[in-house]
Each structure stands twice: as structure tokens, then as C-alpha cells.
Amino acid sequence: MFLKQLTFMSHFRQVNGLNFRVNLIRSFHKQFTPSTFHLPTIYALATPPVQKSAIAVIRISGSASGYIYHKLTRRKRDPTPRMMLLRNLYKPNENILTQNLLDQALVTLFPGPHSFTGEDSLELYIHGGTAVAQSVLEAIGKLNDRTNNINIRYAEAGEFSKRAFQNQKFDLTEVEGIKDLIDAETESQRNSVLSSFSGSNKKLFENWRSQLVNNEAQLTAIIDFGDDNDIDSDNYKIFSNVESSVRILKRDIDDFVKRVDRAHLLQSGLKLALIGEPNVGKSSLLNTLAKDDVSIVSNIPGTTRDTIDRVMDLEGYKIVFCDTAGIRGNTEDEIEQIGIERAMLKGGRSDVCVIVVDSSKGGITDPKIIELVNSEMFKDKPLLIVLNKIDLMDSEKINIIMDHLQNTFKGRSVVLPVSCNTGEGIENLITGLIRIFKDLALVDEQNNSITVSQRIREILHNDVLYGLDSFLMAKKLGNDVVMASEDLKYAIDGIGKITGSHVGVEEVLGVVFSTFCVGK
Ligand SMILES: Nc1nc2c(ncn2[C@@H]2O[C@H](COP(=O)(O)OP(=O)(O)OP(=O)(O)O)[C@@H](O)[C@H]2O)c(=O)[nH]1
């Protein structure tokens, strides 16, 4: 059978017009045919297009990788696998006497299965710059030769990763982990996707699945061998044991889902609204944190008329700060009133509210602020009170104001004294903000958190937990084994969709890989 496969492979290479020597010994040791070997060879620029850079990388994957190597380098001998070699790249199919040099490049051939995709792959490290990359890409494209069955085409978004998945190099959770790793903008985001990328989520999902399959098998046994109408006491015991096991598993999955739901904040960023009376220093605080002049600062009250969002990486955490118009109850100015309404709305939609107070005014002077903080929209929101302009006050007065503010908000928040002018207290404020962020995103002491893709979160909610809840309901309402077994299957299929290893693969592939960039 194996020899047959070898013969077929070698035939395949010949009909593919691959005129380089098929190394039979290597194929024998390989004992592996990628499941994607019948697909066209794909190529793409793996580094950003239309940008000047020192190096650009072109990735090629598929059975014609070696052929492309020979054609571009005009060399007859196979290259040493997995070794970087300095080679001249020439326009293929041109008169051999004319040079037609395209570039000098480092090239590496990765024979399958020891490559990212599991197929034979070739990587070209060429000089950066649009014209060089374009000429080499064009040369590869021209090697497509339908009549001789050499199928080469430009890759689609995520196609290299898709091939890696199809050749079982990764499951879907790992593939999505790679994408999230590339997309990570901050240190905390990078940290949080490692659980997917490193495969620890995959192990967890597989463990859940095997527990559920085990439980489902016991229910199937009751259905297949039990009485049609009723279940006897032995089977009832089995059913109840399955129920206990499912309950424990559901608790674990609930915990996991809660952690990933909360950790989602790490990806989207913590939305933080700066709220306060006019002229208290909200814009100054934003500029101090951003170390930049984002918002206009002036001593004219009501300078900020609308909300201004600013995304910041604060010590590795993504925070979306929103500077809002100063809130006061007694303005007649129509535009200012609209600004105030928007500020209140922004505050309501934020994850955390920072109330900025001017210490030189002795504390909050407008009751509208206190009314707002105690309103329905704000009452469950984490609060942070920032007492600004402490450079203008002596420490005794500052302590009195802090005590008063703490009483006003009845222990709902700490009060942090700062000065945007001198920078005093700003470090403390950043530490306080990050502590709130970690609490909300359920980041533990070792800075661990788990994030999974939106797709996985939805399946966990809509399929896995839904199936488990329905199972428990079927057990509770009438000890209905058949219904309960179907519900467990639903949850099991959900986990299969997550990892892509068991069911509904085709349906989910499009969703997963379409979000990748070309060349990945
Ligand atoms: N002494 C001192 N002045 C400050 C401090 N922070 C801000 N100011 C001054 O306070 C004034 C108002 O500052 P802004 O940052 O514009 O205040 P705001 O709350 O955004 O004002 P609105 O846009 O009207 O809502 C400016 O003149 C700032 O220079 C501080 O820590 N100490």
C-alpha cells in the first residue's frame, strides 16, 4: 500500500512537470503525504505590501515549492533542507544566456511534513521594496503552467494557516491563537492569547469533550439496553451519576466562560470616562497620561465641548480614555448642554468612571455630579475619584477634602490626590487604574488571563452551555434519557466546532480563516 502511494507520488510529481529529481529515499523516510497535496501551490508576500523595508519575505507552499526553487535559482541540485542559502533569483523561462537577475536572496526549503503548513514549503528573504517584491512575485506567478499540471496561484487570506490546519499541524483554537498573537497590540493582550497559541486551551477542550463523550456513552447504553418505557433503579443510578459529573463539568465551563468574557476587556480595551465639573483638569489629566497634547487645555470653563477618545497602552494594558465636556447644572448654552448630555451618556457606557475634582475649589461644588454618580446608570459602575491640582493646596486641606469625598461616596471609591502640573500622584493613579483593570478582566497575580476568539465564546455560550443546561433540565423534568442524551450530543458537537476536529468543520473554516491576512 505504502509503495503504491510512493509510486503515485512520484507519478504525481512527474505529471506535474516537476523536472527535478524525486528523492525516493527522502520520500521513504517521509512516510507522509499531506492531505492537501492535490491543491495548487500557493505563494504570497508574508510581510506588509507597499512598504519600504530592509527585507521582504515571500512564502510558498505546496508540491511545486521545489520546482519553483529550481526555476528561480536555475540550479539543478536540491537545496539542503531547512538551511538558509544565499542564491541569485532569475526570471524563469528566459533565455539562459541573458542574466535577467531579479534579486539576491536567502532561500530556505522546508520539505513536508516539517514545515508550518505540513506541505513542502519555500521561503524567500528578498530585499524589501515594492519593485523587488513585485518582480519576484510576478516571476513565481508565471510558473503556473496548466497544460503541464503545474498549478500555482497567489494565496488567499489565511490560506497557509488553513493548510496547516488541514494537515493537522494545529487545531482551530491554536490557529486562532496565532492570529490573535499577530493582532496583539499590548503586552497584556499578548500574554492572554498564549493559552490558545500554546495549545493549553486545546487540551482543556479535549478533556471536556472526552468527559462528555464518556457520559453520553453511558446514556446511550441505558437507551440501547434499558426498558423502552421506564428506567430501572440501576439505570437511574447511572443517569444520576452522569448528572453529577455534568454538573461539575458545567461549573468548570461556567468559570472558564466567565474568565474569557471578562478577559475580553484586554482585547477591546477598558473604556474609561473622565467626568467632572468644568475646569477641574480633565483634559490636562488626559494629556498628562498620554504624555501628549490630545485635548485643548485652557482656564476658560467649558473648553471641551464634545467627547474625545484616546486609546493608550498604559503599562501593557489597552485603555480607551474619553475626555468629556465639563458637567454643570446651570448652563443655558445649548451646545454646552448637548456636550453635557453626551458626557453623561459616555460615562454610562464606560467600564470605569474617573471623577476629577478640583482641590482648589474645596471639592465638588455642583450637586449635579453627585446626583449623576448616584443615578441608576452609574450606581454599579467602578469609580475612581481623582483629586487634582494638589500643588495649589497644603496637605492639611487636602486631607480634609479627601475625607469629605470619601464620606460623600460612602466608600465606593478610593480618592487619589494628583497634580497634572507637577506630576505628583500620577504614578499612583496609573497603578490604581491597572489594579481596577486587572480586577475587572480577572487577571490573576501572575498576570495570567485567558482569551479566546469571539467565535469560540459564542459556541461556548450557544452550544456547549446551552446543551448542558438543557441536559440538566431534561433530567430534572422527567428523567428523559433520550432528550438528555441529545442535549449532551449538542454540547459535544459544540466543542467539536471549537477545535474543528470532529464536526461541522467546513462550516466554521470560512469564518476562522477569512479573518487572517494574506501570507499567514
Ligand atoms: N495648578 C494647577 N493647574 C492645573 C492642573 N491641572 C489643570 N490645571 C489648569 O486648570 C485649567 C483647566 O484645565 P483643563 O484641563 O482644561 O480642565 P477641563 O476639566 O478639561 O476643563 P473643561 O474643558 O472646561 O471641562 C487650565 O488652566 C490648566 O492649566 C494642576 O494640577 N495644577
TrEMBL record:
Taxonomic source organism: Maudiozyma barnettii
Entry annotated with the keyword Transport: no
Domain of life the protein comes from: Eukaryota
HAMAP family, alphabetized: GTPase_MnmE
Annotated protein name in UniProt: Similar to Saccharomyces cerevisiae YMR023C MSS1 Mitochondrial protein
Short name of any one Pfam family annotated for the protein: MnmE_helical
Stated family: Belongs to the TRAFAC class TrmE-Era-EngA-EngB-Septin-like GTPase superfamily. TrmE GTPase family.
GO cellular component labels: mitochondrion
Xref: SUPFAM superfamilies: P-loop containing nucleoside triphosphate hydrolases
UniProt domain TrmE-type G: residue ranges: 269-438
Keyword Transferase: no
GO biological process, one term: tRNA wobble uridine modification
GO molecular function, one term: GTPase activity
PANTHER family, per database record: TRNA MODIFICATION GTPASE GTPBP3, TRNA MODIFICATION GTPASE GTPBP3, MITOCHONDRIAL
Keyword field: GTP-binding, Nucleotide-binding, tRNA processing
PROSITE patterns given in the database record: G_TRME
